[in-house]
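Ticket #4471: complex job returned nothing on first submit. Input attached below:
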Amino acid sequence: MKNPILLKEFRQRMRTSRAPIVVTGYVASMGILTFFLLYENVQGQLYLFQPARSQQVFTILSLIQMIIVAFLTPAFSAGTISGERERRTLAVLLTTPLSPFSILFGKIIASSALQYLLLLASLPLYSLVFLFGGAVPQEVLAVLVFQLFTIFIIATISVMWSTVALRSGWSTVLSYATVSFMIFITGSIGLGLQSLASNPVDADVARYGQFFLSLNPLWIEAELENAVHSGNAEWVLFVIFYFAVACCLLPFCIWRLRPQWLWRIPGLTRVNERNYQ
Amino acid sequence: MIQTQHLTKKFGRFTAVDKLNLYVPEGTVFGLVGENGAGKTTTLSMLATLSTPTSGKAVINGYDVVRHPSDVRRSIGFMPDSFGVYDDLSVDEYLEFYADCYAVPRAVMQKRRQDLLERVQLVDKRHTYVNALSRGMQQRLEIARCLMHNPPVLILDEPASGLDPRSRIELRSVLKELKALKKTVVISSHILYELAEFADEIGILRRGQIAAVASVSVMLQHSSSQRTLWIATKSSQHVLEQALRDVPEVSSVTYFPEGVEVIYQGTLEEQSELLLKLLRRGVRVSQFAERPTDIEALFLRLTSEREEGGSA
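Support reply: We reran it on our side without changes. The output follows.
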């Protein structure tokens, strides 16, 4: 189905010089990093083909890529709705018959499209890693799909913060707090609990530690690359948890965009509030 | 076409719109006039489904604004008092975007866009980015945008605000075009004379309530018992002065080199009697015309009369 928001956003975002500059800069930086890692890999070594070391290069590259796109996504998504409000274009948009789902979906896809493009544009770099063995195409595909999902979920949460918060400043803070939680907080708590549980062995604490690590995209990605082993398909918990977070934020977005949808629920229709637009 | 019943909007303890009852028949251009803070924008926001009434009811084109907001949105074209435009979109793309929002078929959209750009005199700007247009052009583009889905109702909130005199004149000609399209229009302004040119009816909003509703012609010709007349003569000033002195309805005379301005308390019929009296007394009248009533003064008098009546 045609989404007018998506078409408009693509027109606006992709016709400026910013998009090609970001893609070129990103691919060039990742290319330099890849060549550097591959060069370091073979320096002083007797054999050129060392699959184990090549696997490490793939892991390092994909983890760096995940961190970059995870922190880049809120920069493009956190001001989408609040920015419309600040530029005074939201009121007119809300008088059109577009549903809140249509508005949010268009904003999410449009604001994360550049990051998808970055991932796809950097795929040829992985083919260099293939030359030296180690990573297999299934792993690369799994990592790519997981990275695409992580970008989608970060963009979704950022756009939702942008809808709920009245100002772009606040939505940016909340979006980066979310990414920090995903990467730093869950990682620190998870690894901390795991180390606490190892001596003496405490199964409960270890389980809690594993739970927090399951919410960390870097950990899941490392697991998909067989760099760490937990024995469970932890990406399922990751997907369910963040999907649930997005579902929890959705009613607040509807409350902001289409208060009439909630007119049957007393106290939720914002009757005493000043205009959101 | 538009009807409100006891429409109320409260922000905490403050009542912005207080039990507003309004009826705008189909094809009428209704001007909503009031001072800043009178409740115009809040009323129009509720009609445009942007804010929810605290109580009361508003129906547009047969649809309740709370229960059937999507149908209301398809029935209206809304222009807010303060709006922004999207960067990096051309005039054509801007109109296309809003047509897509209303799922207007492509062939219809292209034809309508051409027609509307001609009406708002922006055909030569169709490939210009909207953020590069002047404020006046953006206002006209917004009116075209409101009409892209051909709604039966237009809600325009202070469309002339922030415009220079030239842009105001250009906008006024576009608004007059709307009247020819037989749309039902609700248009707000705090400047009464701006609406007097093309509105059929004017409602004066005061503290969230309608203080007066009247057709423009009635307001100008019958509600006012005070008229400003311009009289130019070929007789001497002394003769004219003598003639006017004996007319009790004349309350004030101001002399100018080209003629006199007379404040006359009377009806249209009595006004013609004045001309007869002057001619009978030998005044050689070369010009005798009623000057447009100072509608702002009328507005102030009407509202202050009601206030005095209310406080008495």
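The interface with chain B takes residues 2, 4, 7-8, 11-12, 15-16, 87-89, 91-98, 258-260, 263, 269-275, 277 of chain A (CB under 8 Å). Closing as resolved unless it happens again.
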